[in-house]
Amino acid sequence: MTETNKVSNESKKGADVFRDKVIAALLLLIPMVVFAVTPIYNFSSPGLSLLGLTFFYWFPILWLAITAVMYFFAAMLINRMEGEH
Amino acid sequence: MDNAVVLGVFLALFAVFVILGFWASRFRRGDLSDLGEWSLAGRKLGVYLAWFLVGADLYTAYTFIAIPESVYLHGAIYYFAVPYVGIAFGVAMITMPRMWKIAKDKNYVTAVDMIHDKFNSRTLALLIALTGIVAELPYIALQIYGMQAVLIVMVGQLTSYDVTLITELSLVLAFIILAAFTFTSGLRGATITAVMKDAIILGTVIVAIIAIPIALGGFGKAISAFANGSSYQVPPFTGSGSLAPLLMNAFISLSIMSALALYLYPHAINGVLSIDSTKKIRLSTALLPLYGIGLAFLALFGVLIYSSQPALAMVKLYGPTTVVPALIYVEFPDWFVGIAFLGIFIGGLVPASIMAISQANLAVRNVIKPYWPNIDPKMEARLAKWLSVIFKFIALGFIFLISPTFALGLQLVGGIIILQTLPAIFLPLYTDRLEKVPVGVGWAAGLILGVYMLYGANFVQHTYTTISTVLFDFSTVSWVGFLYIAFVALLLNLLISVGGSYLMGMIHGSAKGAAGKSD
Predict the structure, then answer these.
(1) Which terminal Cβ of chain B has fewer Cβ within 10 Å, N or C?
(2) Using alpha carbons only, what angle is made at residue B193 by residues B42 and B201, rounded to the nearest 5 degrees?
(3) Which pLDDT belongs to residue B237?
(4) What is the CATH number assigned to the segment(s) B3-400?
(5) How confident is the model at residue A3 (pLDDT cuts 50, 70, 90)?
(6) In the prediction, which pLDDT does B485 show?
């Protein structure tokens, strides 16, 4: 392998790590922001009911399940990056 | 209902619980006369045990008793616990692996060890340690209220003979047993019994959150019954299908502040430090929001109870802490009631044990040792064991002295206190530029403002006879509405800690610059 190839591989790897870092940060931050911005889910319209629960009650429950999945992928990504060091 | 069966199942399972607690000292055997072994289980916990141990901090009386009680009394505002859980584990994913790494490198056993080193201040370390110990007490007391709720229903249905006396005697007895096995097994005892507790509780929660809504015809009926029939709606704590606009900021500040507070508590940090790698911390924390789904449904039991007349009658008789026990008692066969009641009971006991261990650990490492450095390791561990016993009984004393109008208030007051340690515990994970004096002044200012506002909200804005709210009324400015006091106190604290450190840094910087020039 030539010297230039090595360098471009290095920078490609650097770009990948940066991309993974951004994705991991988003996977952690998006769930928290959605939970914190309560107006997003403060609705009681009957059209949005599920099992008799208004949107205000059922949306955060669904979001908890999605959050666990997003946190889990974030954990896997960060753990992989940590493993490379 | 055959109440003897309920009691029989309860007692048989409690016996198993006690045996497990004592047996745990043999689990992954270590030298239990060493403080690190006793309080951190030798940093050997893997993903599953860590999930159970840290999860055990979540499924507590907070979930089973305090949140359903508050939703029953005050409605949608106390559903804040659901976003709180979702946010809290995100905060933990960001801060805790860093904390663990620093602790591992420098061989710290508590967060306060780090503060002592980073700020090079024995006084600041002492203040933060004492804050942690004090803030933990109302949290333990909350666990005891939960245990009491189960006992009241069980004893009350069994006999009409002095229910209060029997309940209190049983509580004291349970605490003596708990103290004994915490003493001998340390965090191992808590972790092993946490597995039993979580197994019983997960089973109970899954069955209860499916069967009870079905038996009572869904939530829709209950939500409208709640809107019409809530007996204790203190304005403006109303709202059934969604949140009243005036309470929006109260809801948001309660959930974010509670989320920031959770991993400042000594027991939470102690739990994280007992895990064996940062990778395992991330994986076990990532899945913890799943616990929150059960919490959400249990919170909704506070609404659901309005469509069960017999359960509602029991709650009126035994008090609002008994929402979940009453629904379970009314809706399930007696053997299941026995299992579920034991789950809720040890659901208070196990966290109480974990919390008392972390307090004892902090007291020995960061309060006693700095002033008595020659203490030998055996004596250190022995002191911690005795202190854990003492702290448990101080918390037990709370329930004989104070009768709170709502149990959650205890934990939320604890939140105001523990949040004042945030600048000292979380910020040094990311910067070395903080100075001990502004952080100390910020801590004091935050605490004083918190207590002052708590007084104002309860005895000036309202004329309650005991602490009944942690929300401060800013509704003269309508877009602000109500706010959790902890938020305002933390804001002041951060302003002083960060702003003060920045100013001092500038002065030091220019002083250094001047010194450089004169050379």
Answers:
(1) C
(2) 135
(3) 42
(4) 1.20.1730.10
(5) low
(6) 96
Peptide bond into B138 cis (omega under 30): no
Q: Looking at the predicted structure, is the pLDDT value of residue B513 above 70? A: no
Instruction: Return the ∠ at Cα B304 (arms to B482 and B224), rounded to 5°.
Output: 70
What's the average model confidence in pLDDT over B479-494?
94
Higher pLDDT, B347 or B517: B347
A:B CB pairs within 8 Å: 122
Cβ-based burial of A76 (10 A; exposed 0-12, middle 13-18, buried ≥19): middle
Distance of residue A2 Cα from the nearest chain B Cα, in angstroms: 36
* B262 close to B94: Cβ distance less than 8 angstroms: no
Residue B158 tokens read as 């069994």
Nearest one of B458, B366, B471 to B133, comparing CA atoms: B366
Could you give phi then psi for residue B479, rounded to 5 degrees? -75, -15
pLDDT band at A52 (very low <50, low <70, confident <90, very high): confident
**Which among B370, B271, B357 has a CA at the least distance from the CA of B38?**
B357
Q: Give B-chain residues touching A78 at CB under 8 angstroms.
A: 97, 282
Any chain B CB within 8 A of the CB of A28? yes
DSSP state of B110: S
- Cα A43 from Cα B242, distance rounded (Å): 6
Report residue B298 as tokens.
């249990």
Query: What gap in Å lies between CA B175 and CA B111, rounded to an integer?
Result: 28
Instruction: Tell whether A54 is within 8 A of chain B (Cβ).
Output: yes
Is B292 near chain A, with CB under 8 Å? Answer: yes
Tens of pLDDT along B209-242?
889 988 888 887 777 777 665 544 443 344 567 8
Write the burial class of residue A2 (CB in 10 Å: 0-12 exposed, 13-18 middle, 19+ buried).
exposed
Domain locations in chain B? 3-400, 433-519
Give the C-alpha distances (Å, rounded to integers) separating B236 from B121, B233, B468, B482: 45, 8, 14, 10
**Encoded tokens for B166:** 């029997």
Which residue matches tokens 């392998």? A1
Is the CB of residue B241 less than 8 Å away from at least one CB of chain A? yes
Of all residues in chain B, the percent with pLDDT exceeding 90 is 40
The DSSP annotation for B117-168 comes to HHHT-HHHHHHHHHHHHHHHHHHHHHHHHHHHHHHHHHHHHH--S-HHHHHH
Instruction: Report how many helices (DSSP H) and strands (DSSP E) chain A contains, helices first.
Output: 2, 0
Q: Is the peptide bond before B236 cis (omega within 30 degrees of 0)?
A: yes
